[in-house]
Amino acid sequence: VSYLKSFYSYKCVAMHPFQASGWNRSVVYDYLGFDECHFVEDFPQEKIIRDYVSDQEMFEYLIKTYEAKKETPLFLFGVTMQNHGGYTYNGDNFTNSITLNSDGKDYPEVEQYLSLIHETDKAVNYLITYFQNVEENVVIVFFGDHQPKLDDSFYERASDSAGDLLDNRQKRYKIPFFVWANYNIEEEYVDCTSLNYLSSYVYNVANITLPPYNKFLQEMEKVIPSINANGFYSLADARYLDFNDAEGKELHWLEMYEALQYNNMFDKEHLNESMFPRAR
C-alpha cells in the first residue's frame, strides 16, 4: 500500500463485508495506509448466503468502487466473508448443491463448504467477465490463507497422509491462487510459493518496478521457495523443515530475512532506507 501510494499515486481501498472490529481491521488498515475502508454496514446486504454478504454482492460493490475512481489508479484489497466456517448452517439463505459419495460416512460440512465454493466460482466468473471488457489494464489476484476447518477424517481419506508431521501440517496451508490480467501476460504455473512472495508476482504482471525489498525476496525465493509460521521448504532436503533445523545457505537467508523484517517493522531509528525507501 505505502509503495503504490507514495511512488505511483494509487488510491488504496480495503474492503471486508463484516465487522470492522474483526482482527482490529479498522485500526490495522489505517496503519497500513489505506485511504478508505469499507465494512459490512457499507454494503447493501441484499444478497446474503447463510449469514454473510455473498461474494457476488461483494464483487458488485467492488465494481461500483472501481467505476467511481475517476482517473486515479486503484489498488483494492478485499477479504470475502461468504465461505467463512463453520459449515453447519441449516436455514433459508442457502441450500447445498453438492453431495459426496463417501462410502458409508457422511460429511455434511464438506458438502456445505464445496457448495459455497461453487457459488464463489460463479461470482469469480462474473468479476472476470466484467474486467475483460474494460479498456484500462486490470490485474486480479485471488488467494486464501488456509484450508477450511473440516472433519479430520475427511482430510485423511482425501489426501495422502504419508510423510512426517510437519509435512502433513503444511498441507493444511496449501491453497490455490491465481493472478489474472485483462491483457496478455505469460502463462506460468507456480508449484511451490508462499504469501510473502505474492506481491512480487503482482508487481511483475503489472509492469511495476520491484521495490528493493521485493528484489531481496525474489532472490530469497530461489533458495527458500516457501515459508510460513510452521517452517520452510528446504530445497536441499526436498521437504519442509522446522526453523531450528535450518543450516548453511538456508539459515543465512532466514537470518537476513528476520533482520530485514525487524528493521522495517520496529527499528525506525536505524531504518535501512536503501532497502525500504520512503517517498519525500
List the helices and strands and how they pair.
Layout: H1 2-8, E1 11-15, H2 25-32, E2 36-38, E3 48-49, E4 52-53, H3 55-67, E5 74-78, H4 108-132, E6 139-142, H5 152-158, H6 165-171, E7 178-181, H7 198-205, H8 212-223, E8 227-228, E9 231-234, E10 239-241, H9 248-265
Parallel strand pairs: 1-2, 1-5
Antiparallel strand pairs: 3-4, 6-7, 8-9, 9-10
Features:
alpha/beta; three-stranded antiparallel beta sheet; 9 helices; globular; single chain
Strand order of the largest sheet: 2-1-5
Shape: globular
Q: Estimate percent helicity.
A: 25-40%
Mean pLDDT: 93
Instruction: Indicate the radius of gyration in whole angstroms.
Output: 21 Å
Structural class: alpha/beta
Percent of residues in β-strands: 5-15%
Count of discrete alpha- or pi-helical segments spanning 4 or more residues: 9
Can you tell me the residue ranges where pLDDT is under 50 for at least 5 consecutive residues? none
Largest sheet: 3 strands, parallel
